[in-house]
Specification:
This protein has 156 residues and is α+β, with helices and mostly antiparallel strands. The chain has helices at 8-21, 38-42, 49-72, 149-155; strands at residues 78-86, 93-98, 103-107, 120-128, 132-141.
Length: 156
Amino acid sequence: VGFCGETEEQFQKTLDLVRTVKYNKCFMFPYSLREKTSAHRKLKDDVPEEVKKRRFNELNDTFRSTVVELHSGYVGSVHKVLVTGDSKRSTDDFQGTSDMGVKVIFSKSDLQSEAKVGDYVNVEIKSTSSEVLKGTALGVTSLSEDLPEPVREAMS
């Protein structure tokens, strides 16, 4: 936010876009000129720092509220999750990436069989935040499990 010449009207259109699209991920930064770039040589950084900071905070708040709304719609649904490792907060939990590209945390103790990094696990989503989904593991699965039988037979 706060690119050279950005007006309040343009910024409001950015907020409207975020509300409409409901992005799952959003990488946001206040703009700053970098030396040895074309922008540094040709443009004037004319958006005051306090305006950039306000816009950044407003965009961040808007994104977080829309992503919480989006993630809340996943509660109660089952998703295939690729196990990527232990949760950063507890080695009793796995973390992984859902079939929607969202980080999911689930307890290792929910699983009847051992799962490891690289396995797929069906997880029922129980709660959510703007950053992660939390759920209950239903069991280890595979990508081919959802394929029609003739396709699975052809693969073996």
